[in-house]
Amino acid sequence: MSQTITLYVDGACKGNPGLGGWGAYIITEQGEHKLCGGEPETTNNRMELTAAIEGIAFCPTDARLIIWTDSNYVKQGITEWIHSWKKKNWKDVKNPDLWQKLDATCVNREIEWNWIKGHAGHAGNEMADQLANLGAEQTAKQLKSTTQANADTKKPEPDWLLDDPFGLDMMADQDETVEELEIEINVQDNMAETEILPDSSVTPTGSLHPQIVVTEAKLSLQGPRQLILDTETTGFYYQDGDRIIEVGAIEMINRKLTGSSIHIYINPEKPVGDSEAIHGITDDFLQDKPKYAEIADTLFAYLKGAEIIAHNATFDMNFLDMEFKRVGLPLLSDVCEVTDTLALAKNKHPGQKNSLDALVRRYEIPARDRTFHGALLDAEILADVYLAMTGGQVSFDMDALSQTEQSQNKTTRQRVQIELPVIYASGDELAQHETWVKQFEQKHGKPCFFAK
């Protein structure tokens, strides 16, 4: 083996079927390589397969490949399902052309296939996703330019002397164009006069910075909010000017994850330095990301009033307090309760390793790829750890329950007194029982268990 190469592959499709793109982010010993492409009419699965094919084909045949994909379709297809597909000669298999091409590309190679959760904040997967979308965008531009060129070629020159000898239609078109332009200008002016002011009393999904990812809750639950949170930073010391570069938090109510989350990459306005080795986030990646002041209102509104759960929470809260203070907002620690899972773990497991990785092993949490730390990924892992570490310690806030739920609870607590009837055997039933017992004893030569 000459070297080990890590590949992150991903596909994207707008419409499915529709315009699609694929991306492969390849990390070799010599450096990074970014591949992308697309097709005007395709499906997401075809783009996922194409990303894997192109990424593998790019690598030397004698290299050991470690491939990460967020498509179970690709991972299970190439490692499990493909054997039965070959036996039945690809009958009833979708995308057989690409599966056969992927199979041929993998021949005589050492490949380790892995699944990774998509859009979970992992730097490698995020880069592959960006490349896939870039491939789709480039394909759309090429398609548009080709279509325009064909239209220009086929478009006949109008003969206005024959069609409109006095130029009346041309004058009418010009009048309509001027009128439409005036309407468009008026609309833009009205929009410019309407300023959207941040309001922490409104949910932050109303007006977001385009690079803030907030997911809506899938479960409608009542009770106090808990936010499992993690940050990534340029270094360890907020006092020395280190800044936050990533924030991820997921919502939990009554020990159930609601599906709501927030995830933001932030331009720290300084180099990430040696911390890149921990989180894998590069200066180039953060270059077009928003500054903290641009996302502070939305982030503060999402976090405010919740119980923040973090591992080594002092670290995260010091950085968040510093960042919010810089933009003139209150300290987060003043408006949130904080629970430190590291302190909980040390109290529960004194004298043992209590890092997040150690707790994952101790509580047998399902493994995830942590080649690099990612804020949202670590928050998801910490949620599993927190629930396992505090198992059985469920607290119900009765004030948070609705009046209906409270009345239902009271109803179920009322003692129900019912006199159960006692039904005795009849004389005929007793006689039949005696006959059966005697027959049993004669047959087996021993007393019956049911004999009186």
Structural write-up:
The chain has 452 residues and is of the alpha/beta class. Among the domains are: 129 residues, 2-Layer Sandwich (Nucleotidyltransferase, domain 5), CATH 3.30.420.10; 178 residues, 2-Layer Sandwich (Nucleotidyltransferase, domain 5), CATH 3.30.420.10. The chain has a six-stranded mixed β-sheet, sandwiched between helices. Strands 3-2-1-4-5 form a five-stranded mixed β-sheet. Strand 2 and strand 3 form a beta hairpin. Helix 1 runs parallel beside helix 3. The termini are far apart. About 16% of the residues have low confidence.
Succession of helices and strands? EEEHEHHEHHHEEEEHHHEHHEHHHHH
Using the CA coordinates, give the radius of gyration.
33 Å
CATH architectural arrangement of one domain? 2-Layer Sandwich
Q: Span from first to last CA?
A: 82 Å
- pLDDT averaged over residues: 82
Uncertain runs are: 159-207, 392-413
Strand order of the largest sheet: 6-9-8-7-10-11
CATH class of one domain: Alpha Beta
Structural class from helices and strands? Answer: alpha/beta
Largest sheet: 6 strands, mixed
User: The CATH topology of one domain is what?
Assistant: Nucleotidyltransferase, domain 5
Could you state the CATH homologous superfamily of one domain? Ribonuclease H-like superfamily/Ribonuclease H
- Kindly estimate the percentage of residues that lie in beta strands according to DSSP: 15-25%
> So what's the oligomer here?
single chain
Number of strands: 11
Q: Helix count, per DSSP? A: 16
Proportion of helical residues: 40-55%
